[in-house]
Amino acid sequence: MKMRKILAGILSMAMTAGLLAGCGGAAPADTAAPAADTGAATEEAAAPATDGDVQEISFMIWDDLEASEDLITKGYKESVDRFNADFAGKYHCTPITTNLEEYYDKLNALVAAGDTPDVFIASPGANLNDYAMTGVAAKLDDYLDADGWKQTFTSDAVFAGGTYGDEGGDGPGIYAIPLNIAAACVFYNTEMFEDAGAAVPKTFSELLDTCQKLQDKGYTPITISAGTAWCLSMVAGYLCDRNGLNLQDIKDHKTDWKDEKVIKAGEQLQELSQYFQKTAAGDDNDVATAAFYNGEAAILIQGSWAIGQINGSCAEGFADKVGVFAFPAVDGSSADPNRVIAKSDSLCMSAATQYPDAAIQLIKYFVDDTASKYTAEIGGKIPVTSVQYDESIAPPELKYVMDVFKNASSTFGFYNESLADTEAGSTFDNCFVEIFKGEDPETALDPIEDYYEMNVWE
Amino acid sequence: MDKLMRNKKAIILFIAPALILFTAVLFIPVCKAVYYSLCNYKINYQPKYIGFKNYVMLFTKDKTMAIAFKNSIFFMIFSIVTQLIFGLILAALLTNIKKGRNLFKNIYYLPCVLSSAALGLLWMFVFMPRLGINQMMASLGWIEDCTMGPEWLFNTDGFIILPIWVISFVALWQYVGQSMMLYMAQISGISMDIYEASYIDGCSKKQSFFYITLPLIKPMVATAMSLNAIGSLKFFDLIYNMIPEGFLSHKADVIATHLYTQAFKFSKLGYGSAIGVILLILCLIMTVIINKFVKTESYDM
User: Taking burial as the number of CB atoms within 10 A of a residue's CB, which of A24, A144, B98, B236 is the most buried?
Assistant: First the structure.
């Protein structure tokens, strides 16, 4: 009996100890990352420490680093692997990955729980505001100014999306480091265009004519996702801009969402939607993009990150069939037709990180020469640093995107990321999905108008 | 036992673990949620008391809440009615067959133990425009090609939209096994003597079901209905996985998905808490209504 009690006591203690051990405990130290080229600033890497001194940092991103076919994501994985290899025994980064749709939900949950990842990716605009203006993301000016890091970037303009004035959580400054730039363009299948006798359109009416020619030839003119609402709202954003809408005027309530320019954009979207694939309402972004690189549709309106997706997923040689043009002007509109939607993936550092030096080193690995060359030569995105890359091996689409970018008079952000907050952006997306489905634009815009009445213009 | 019940220390000792756990993981969070529901509370900001503004907004301005409420109520009624009918039918059939009872019991119950998230994804693929059912319909020649088939998860026409009907049927498929098991447990507790006596009196199988089985399992009917009502009101995972976020402009939202969107996507923890409180009150009301209207009496079986 006594023996049984002792045994029970020992087992209980063992279980309790196991439970407590499960609660705490640092993540395992370095996990033998594959060796890779070290083009990064590795001066700090030379001093390995013992296992007990390894500084463990987390990095959160919106794609699966292990499974993704996206070439840009593969490049991010390479950067993490290089960092872990170069700083073995000193720093170690553990990625936290999730899919894009749930990324901000999960990041917000971690932030609310006081467990903000040391480094996390964010889109400039309403999403970044939630972290930069609330003290979640650290101000990075001191790190940028040290050892000439800032001078490696092409210009100060690349920091525009991550720069805040007095509203910044830690005062005016830069709160996010851009990794690359993508421009929203119109990708087209040159073989299909040639076969249909279609030319690259310069105006919206020419775009409709082109689509008609493609349709007459038996092709699906445009593949797009209305299921993933931001894809459709990207087109809506272009149409609003080409009709001359100024978002600042809406913010300042000089006009509203029932402005004739927005209504006209809605009507034009409905005109264009007759050329979308039949399943556009239910297709998600991946399915819609696949329809383009599988040769099922002639046109894909998408950000230039699609180059990495397309080239990572389709057979070799398809890239040679792809052409790129800027979103056309709207006939009769006096608005600048050379503005381009641009977007950058940006990295933030948690203001609460225990290891800022490790976090900054990791960020540097995402924009060092090796990473920036990869961005252009393999990923097909525009690098933000002054790196010299080999244009002859870069995806051919990148050159076309660069042409569009060079001819751009100015850039603007995705509408759903440029509005008052994330809910306003989501409401905007939903309004244009309803317009796409046939609702009268005047009525369909009620939710965004109501949202601004209640939350922005009050 | 009486001696034990007089020992206050023993009572406290036995109740304390459950009470502490209940207080820590349920009572305190519910109280905090009620408080936050009265605050303007966004992630990364301190909660600021605003009285009943969140509730006023919910009931007067929030159009998605109205849609979510409608869908949740439909979903609840559909679940209660269909699971009662099909659960009873399956239970009655399975208690009356001699061979294969356990096999069918396991088959019907299997979806209950599978992950709703995985099932949601699986059914989403089944109902996708280019896959599953539409592909099958096209290969059978019923439609020209798969893109011409019904938009199972994306049609937004009608008072109750097609995706809600589809998800309701999937939920019925997943959870009918649970109702069936509850009814079977109760039916198997009915003494065979009662049935034999009824057969001697000339009762048919159908009559014995309606006049013996049904009245005797009424307490379980009330329990199963309450469980169905609460389960369907807080239903989340299938919808969340079958209708990706952003699809359908929130027309397929139910109260729980609306709560999730507001609290976690838009970081409005105070507003999300208000939706949670409404959900809690609705669950309580439904439980009271069901227990009041489904009158149960105890029989010695």
Answer: A144
